[in-house]
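Predict the assembly for these two chains.
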Amino acid sequence: MSNSFSLNNKVVLVTGAGAGIGRAIAKQLAGARAQVMLSDIDSTTCAQACDELSTAGCRVASHAHDVTSEDDWKRVLTATVSRFNGLDVLVNNAGIYAGSMLLDSPIEQYRRLNKVNVESVFLGMKLAAEIMKIGGTVGNGGSIINMSSVAGLKGVSGDAAYGATKGAVRLCTKHLAVEFARLGYGIRVNSVHPGLIATDMGNQVLEDAVASGLAPDFDTANILFSQMIPMGHFGSGEDVANMVQFLASDASKYCTGAEFVVDGGLLAG
Amino acid sequence: MRLIGKVAIVTGGGSGLGKATCQRFAEEGALVVVTDINLESARQVVADILATDGKAQAKHQDVTDERRWTEILEQVVSDHGRLDILVNNAGVALAATVEDETLEKWRKTQAVNGESVFMGTRAAIAVMKEQGGSIINISSVEGLIGEPLAAAYNFSKGGVRIFTKSAALHCAAKNYAIRVNSLHPGYIATPMIEQVAQTMDPEVVGEWQARVMGSIPVGCMGEPIDIANGCLFLASDESRYMTGAELVIDGGYTAR
């Protein structure tokens, strides 16, 4: 019986794997028999996440990782290839969120968001593609999955800076999908666009909405935002992880340069 | 086995993308109702599935026939007690530019590619609303971008794309646990691709093939299994938080 969604032995690097969506992705992919390097700027939670999976019999390792640092990227990629003897999938998941009205936002907030959410993705793709491309040091091609957002597709009050960074991720994904295909690298590049997801970052969206005056308190914000979603509730890290698994597996071998939306219908209307 | 205990209808299941999807669903444990205007082709797909211990049955279906939709859904519920998945896959590709197209041929394209999707979605919702389900409408890259030789096809596939969102939002608003999504294949090696060339003027076929094939970033057409796996993802609980969305499987065709 074929199981095309299996990741049997594929080597995967997931950034921001210590918590939230990244942690769910690492768990899902390790459970689908991938060999997973978890990386995060918070090495403690990252190691905890790794230990949980290791105890469950998964093939995993963890590494500290500031995704804005080129040196850190080189260290993590080297460690991944050395530990698991390959590199097939990069999940550029690490990212930060801050929500505030433009006129209340210092320009430094935008610059920080851009650095963590966009520069990191460029750095990761550049350094990983060098290794993964056919003819590269590992040379098996593979799949790069960039975490964008519904905010990278549509406008939301308070999300201009965050949305701009996620829009950048969405577009550079397409440019590099085309470029890598034309250059024969054998690397697919796709973006995932989660809607509102029940994680710490999801909570932060609600908190920032209250701070921006979009809702009087957290519970009201939760109700208001949930009502905006056609399905009526936030999604889970597993919902995003399921999509990432599809994109990491050979089942999606003809998918590149596309946007994969997991949003409970938020963008449909 | 993601689809054990589930009942799926796949229209146009006798060949191409439909056939691959039927086979993939059966591999994952679904009981597949294979419908096609060519009953013999549907029967052959069923025979192949049964030979590998899968579960399937064939039905003749002209997807433009409203009464036949009612009959088939009634039969499926009566025979199997449920419907979990509908793949609105049946379609035709009749090439013509906006200037060369005739109203008769235009209407045929809209009927087979568009009205069928409306009728199928409506019929499936009526049956699925209690227990939920997944409806997958096969659109195309030609529902996302324009192709000068495919005016009617573009219109029909673009319609499928946005109609899907209307249906998805309706089901969500009614609290039906029914998800409705569109799937957008790029150029896939199937009989339809071979046949569409035959509906073109001979002098444009060569130019079209060179232009289209040369535009695919990954440099080759996809395989039916690529679409079948996309359908499997949308049919299964893995995609439980997706509705009103577009799954694009096109080798980068619409990324450029």
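Chain A has a mean pLDDT of 96. The two ends of chain A are 39 Å apart (CA to CA).
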